[in-house]
Design goal:
Elements lengths: L1 E9 L2 E6 L5 E6 L5 H11 L16 E8 L6 H6 L7 E8 L5 E5 L2 E3 L1 H9 L2 E4 L1 H6 L3 H12 L2 H48 L5 H13 L1 H16 L5 H15 L4 H30 L4 H21 L4 H67 L6 E12 L2 E10 L7 E2 H4 L2 H16 L6 E5 L7 H15 L3 E5 L3 H4 L4 E8 L6 E6 L2 H13 L5 H12 L1
Parallel strand pairs: 3-13, 3-14, 8-12, 12-13
Antiparallel strand pairs: 1-2, 1-4, 4-5, 5-6, 6-7, 9-10, 10-11, 14-15
Length: about 550
Amino acid sequence: MLKNLSISNYALIEKLEMTPSASLNMITGETGAGKSIMLGAVGLLLGNRADTKALFNQNQKCIVEGVFDIQNYGLENLFSQEDLDYESHCIIRREIAPNGKSRAFVNDTPVRLDTLKELGQSLMDIHSQNENLSLGASTYQLKLLDNYGHTHEYLQAYRTSYDKFLNLQNRYIDLKEEALQLQKEADFNKFQLDELSLLNLEAGEQEKLEEEQEILDNAEEIKGKIQEILNSMQEEQFGSLSSLATGFQGLQQLSRYGQAFDALKERFHSVLIELNDIAATLEQEDALIEVDMEKLSSIGDRLSKIYQLQKKHGVATVEALIGLEHDLADKVFKVDHLDEQLKEIEQSKEKEATIMKQLGQNLSDKRKACTQSFAKELSALLHKLGMEKAVIEIVCRETKPSANGMDEVEFLFSANKGIAPQPIRSVASGGEFSRLMFAIKYIMADKTALPTLIFDEIDTGISGEVALQMVHMMQEIAKRHQVICISHLPQVAAKGDQHYFVYKDNSTEKTISKIKLLQNEERILEIAKMIAGSNPSSSAFESAKELLQK
């Protein structure tokens, strides 16, 4: 339940704080004083979108904070799933900066709005005039029936199967489309694959072939240059190796005269060995290189085919061609096995469709089983609320499978004897909508574990004994849930355990909305004003006292 609410810098609210009781709280005030503004602020705690236009002072941050007692509502798993610290007193804070940036916190841990919405659904149920309009929608009515009948396990089982079926159906459609495209391209893909496969390409071969071609193209020049180098090194009289050998002999003789000469001898010897090795390698390369025009022609032909395919496919490497060959092979394989794949997916789809329909039927049976009792309870409550001839019927029709099952639900309503029930959206007036919605909330209060229910002028369009009956029912709800009711009726406002008054303060340059908890005499005055206007008579005061005593 809500233990404390504080709002600062929001709309007409500069700073406001309230500590509602655990049972029935009434909020009254003149039109435009800020009652609905408070609900807007509370909506921020439940994950509603923020708007910088709502800032009281555009240069300051707006902060809305709610402290909730959640120890008896089994929310530990939700906190664990969202990686939040669980405490029996949960603090939800929402901040809106002047630049429009909005932040949300649960127990001082930043959270996403989706997390706030999920948590909010377990903390509060806010009735508003917009919800009256929602009551006419089939999806809303279906949700009410599911809540009443506790069908959530049935619905979840159905949705799991429905999602699997939908996934298989989409895969089948996608594969079918892919099959049509592949079949159109089948012959061309097969031709391209054969063209690439015939070359039997190997990674890295293009560079090797180009290097070999370069050597064969210049074989005579390369062999001539090798011989020239070898001659310069190996010529008997003037060759570099012969001269170096003489030099090495001299260093051998000098090595007897000190370590420095000995070290030079060793270095010289290393150079001599390296040069002899170079000469030997050049002789080997010379022996390997031959002028082979036939081989040169063969390499040229293969490179020409590689270059042609690279140009044709818009790639620059053999590796890219090999990758393309693999892709084409996959496409050709798919075409050859498409019928088999399609048949396999279709069988899986049909199997899941059977499971889905059975689960959908189980869900439908569960829903239909509670339509009469739900309608009977609603009708009985409407009779108590002054609509003695009201009749509610709940019709459950079969429809094609969707995420919500295989049912279309419609609430039919008639307020008068002899008039056949018609869809609610077509026949219910504003006051009838309010009473019907209240009756639904009354029933649902026993079906859910919501800590707090907020009614925003749910008594619109009613008065007298009906209003008294409604507030007595609120008192019944308040024995098990915290109730906050924004009301304009004195007989309703008088029955709250606490009474808050929202008013405008015009003592400064800018109008400010404020709230105060009314004490005994203040409460009598407010109820009297609600009865007779701003200057209540003595009889209005007496009526106010009587209402409060009752």
